[in-house]
């Protein structure tokens, strides 16, 4: 695992336009959004409403942003948002969202309105990266006047329904490349020293410290534990530097940090973190963990949530 600072730029000096351009020139397409995501969405058109909520133009490429919505949408029902691929490199988030819609979307007909944005960051999906082409992390950019077009488009999609969401599940991964590639690049971009961290072996969740929902998070952990292992705390009782507040659960102030999980105002929100590099987990298990998390989250919220919005 590489622990040296990213070689782009001058140590101690934040990147400017030249450094960002150099970084962008080193990124290459490694997989196809059209083949992996758009084709999978096309197969769902017979059962769901599919619509474009934005278009990203990153010359020479263009990316339609597609969402999947319950065909039997009922304004009297609570709304559920499932998001994947906010960080494009986090593969099971994208495929977990698509597989959830395919395999379990019909389970919630007449119970909830589903809105699924399976790949928020298609440019990064193709390049297996965390950032967008401007070297911006979309998952720190969900705020007013967002510099990330991916984040702004998703917020515009969600805004008319704010206050009506009961649950939002944002699907992510924590990978070895977070330490070998992305955190060193972040330090270089911001002109900061790189301080090595520790990648947890297993699945965990991020709760909202401004709206903690312990029983909800526990229900999700219990469901996922049947599919894959839950990350233990480290020797200091932490996961990725944050105190463990319950088995497999840490907290962030998601709104203050501009995280995707803060965009809906839902009563029940969680961010999943799958560990795909574990020798104890296969890609199929990672997808299954995401699906189990979404189903458990919706089931708990419908059983306990009552009206939408924070209680």
Write up this protein:
This protein has 311 residues and is an alpha/beta fold. The protein has a single domain, classed as Zn peptidases (Aminopeptidase, 3-Layer(aba) Sandwich), CATH 3.40.630. The protein has an eight-stranded mixed sheet, with helices on both faces. Strands 7-8 form a two-stranded antiparallel sheet. A hairpin with a 2-residue loop joins strand 1 and strand 2. The longest helix is centred in the C-terminal third of the chain and has 22 residues. This is M14 family metallocarboxypeptidase. It comes from Luteimonas soli. InterPro entries: Peptidase_M14.
User: What is the CATH first-level class name?
Assistant: Alpha Beta
What series of H and E elements makes up the topology? HHEEEHEHHEHEHEEEEH
Uncertain runs: 1-5
CATH architecture designation: 3-Layer(aba) Sandwich
* Category from helices, strands and their pairing: alpha/beta
CATH topology: Aminopeptidase
What is the domain total for the residues?
Answer: 1
Give the DSSP E fraction (strand runs of 2 or more residues): 15-25%
Helicity level: 25-40%
- Spell out the CATH superfamily: Zn peptidases
Main sheet summary: 8 strands, mixed
Number-wise, the strands total: 10
What assembly state would you assign to the polypeptide chains in this entry? single chain
Radius of gyration: 19 Å
Integer average pLDDT? 95
Question: How far apart, in Å, are the first and last alpha carbons?
Answer: 44 Å
Count of discrete alpha- or pi-helical segments spanning 4 or more residues: 8
């Amino acid at each position: 695992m590489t622990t040296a600072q990213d070689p782009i730029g001058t140590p101690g000096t934040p990147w400017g336009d030249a450094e960002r351009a150099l970084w962008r020139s080193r990124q290459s397409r490694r997989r196809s959004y059209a083949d992996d995501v758009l084709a999978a969405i096309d197969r769902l058109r017979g059962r769901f409403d599919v619509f474009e909520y934005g278009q990203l133009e990153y010359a020479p490429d263009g990316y339609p942003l597609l969402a999947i919505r319950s065909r039997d949408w009922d304004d009297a029902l609570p709304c559920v948002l499932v998001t994947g691929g906010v960080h494009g490199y986090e593969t099971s988030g994208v495929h977990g969202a698509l597989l959830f819609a395919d395999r379990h979307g019909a389970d919630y007909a007449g119970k909830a309105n589903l809105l699924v944005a399976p790949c928020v960051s298609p440019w990064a999906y193709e390049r297996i990266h965390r950032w967008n082409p401007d070297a911006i992390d979309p998952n720190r950019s969900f705020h007013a006047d967002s510099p990330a077009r991916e984040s702004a488009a998703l917020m515009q999609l969600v805004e008319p329904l704010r206050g009506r969401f009961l649950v939002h599940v944002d699907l992510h991964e924590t990978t070895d490349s977070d330490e070998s590639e992305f955190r060193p690049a972040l330090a270089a971009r911001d002109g900061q020293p790189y301080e090595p961290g520790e990648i947890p072996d297993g699945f965990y969740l991020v709760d909202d410290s401004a709206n903690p929902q312990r029983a909800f998070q526990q229900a999700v952990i219990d469901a996922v534990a049947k599919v894959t292992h839950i990350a233990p705390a480290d020797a200091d009782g932490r996961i990725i530097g944050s105190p463990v507040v319950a088995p497999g659960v840490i907290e962030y102030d998601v709104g203050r940090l501009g995280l995707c999980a803060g965009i809906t105002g839902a009563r029940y929100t969680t961010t999943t973190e799958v560990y795909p590099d574990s020798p104890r987990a296969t890609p199929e298990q990672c997808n299954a963990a995401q699906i189990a998390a979404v189903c458990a989250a919706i089931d708990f919220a419908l059983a306990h949530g009552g009206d939408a919005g924070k209680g």
